[in-house]
Design a protein that fits this description.
With 335 residues, the protein is an alpha/beta fold. It has 2 domains: 139 residues, Four Helix Bundle (Hemerythrin (Met), subunit A) (Up-down Bundle), CATH 1.20.120; 170 residues, Nucleotidyltransferase, domain 5. It is built from 11 helices and 6 strands. A 6-stranded mixed beta sheet has the order 3-2-1-4-6-5, sandwiched between helices. A hairpin with a 5-residue loop joins strand 5 and strand 6. The chain is elongated. The relative contact order is 0.08.
């Protein structure tokens, strides 16, 4: 707020000297910098504009009290706001500008009240943040519990333990993509591989619900994941089913070793092998690769058998042959 106060003090001096036009420009700068300060500190993003009216419209949804002139009792408040807007272009481009001493004094009064309100809002927000940080410090172990070692163990039954993880890649146009993978640790079967430009927690939860509805878990089960993935705990997936979350320790990826193996093969076979132009190409190739991985890819840890041969989930009638994908049209093929 040092620059804001500097412009405000300069405006006071210019008003005393009778230079009302340049004083109004300095008050415009004080208003603009005050808005940008509160937007950056309390909203997180400031508007890149010199229009005070645009700043008012942007902030009114977050701070209804930050509406100078609009809630003023002055009968000519709209005129004063327009004069303040015009003062910037006058100072920049040398246009003609006329403003009376009375109008300048009224804008000055509004400016001082506005700066006080901005400082008050900022200090209230700052105190709230301090209280929140102190609360986290007092309950650090509850907010960030220490993760215990969870050795990788193969479950004996299907749907007993699932693993999930994310992978990242880049399209030819430079857009980042994320692939969300889910597998059953019992037979190492890839249950879901979904791709998107971003993956918020609500989408993770939706895809897990869809996977559960499709694969019909017979009982409550565990979901293993990295500690950086934040979703609800516990997660209500389908009616009557609750999933227990098991987080692996930071720096211990082999606690989720089955998923790491799947990720490695998928990256080598697909993400590193092809240059994708859009998400549809990745989605089409995912389905083809999953079918190959689940039905033809042997695993030494399960007797050199592919996942569905080792333990078929529901029988062949639940896995119809997928439609043939035109490799010539996609310009993609799996070797």
């Amino acid at each position: 707020m040092a620059k804001v106060n500097a412009f405000a003090n300069t405006a006071d001096i210019l008003i005393k000297e009778g230079d009302h036009a340049i004083a109004t420009f300095n008050m415009h700068q004080a208003f603009e910098l005050s808005f940008r300060f509160i937007e950056q500190m309390c909203i997180g993003r400031s508007m890149v504009t010199h229009s005070i009216i645009s700043h008012i419209n942007y902030c009114k949804h977050f701070f209804p009290t930050l509406q100078p002139f609009l809630e003023s009792s002055e009968p000519n408040s709209n005129e004063l706001l327009l004069l303040l807007e015009h003062a910037y272009s006058v100072a920049r481009y040398g246009n003609e500008f006329e403003i009376s001493k009375v109008q300048t004094k009224t804008i000055q009064s509004q400016m001082k009240e506005f700066i006080k309100e901005v400082e008050s809002i900022f200090h209230r927000q700052l105190e709230h943040c301090k209280d929140h940080i102190e609360g986290i410090g007092k309950n650090f172990k509850e907010v960030f519990p220490k993760l215990t070692e969870n050795p990788l163990e193969a479950p004996m039954e299907l749907n007993e333990v699932w693993s999930m993880d994310f992978m990242a890649d880049v399209l030819s146009v430079g857009r980042k993509t994320r692939v969300f993978n889910v597998m059953d640790d019992c037979n190492r079967e890839a249950l879901a591989m979904e791709v998107g430009l971003n993956y918020p927690a609500i989408k993770v939860r939706g895809d897990l619900i869809a996977t559960e509805g499709r694969d019909r878990p017979a009982k409550d089960h565990m979901l293993r994941q990295r500690s950086g993935v934040h979703i609800e705990d516990p997660i209500k997936m389908v009616q009557g089913q609750t999933v227990e979350l098991q987080f692996i320790q930071p720096g211990k990826p082999m606690q989720n070793g089955y998923m790491e193996r799947l990720n490695r093969f998928y990256r080598e076979d697909v993400l590193d092998a092809y240059w994708f132009n859009h998400l549809h190409q990745i989605k089409a190739l995912i389905q083809k690769w999953m079918e190959d991985y689940n039905t033809r890819h042997p695993h030494s840890s399960i007797g050199d058998m592919p996942p569905r041969e080792y333990k078929n989930r529901f029988g062949e009638e639940f896995f119809p042959e997928i439609d043939h994908i035109n490799d010539d049209f996609m310009n993609l093929a799996i070797s």
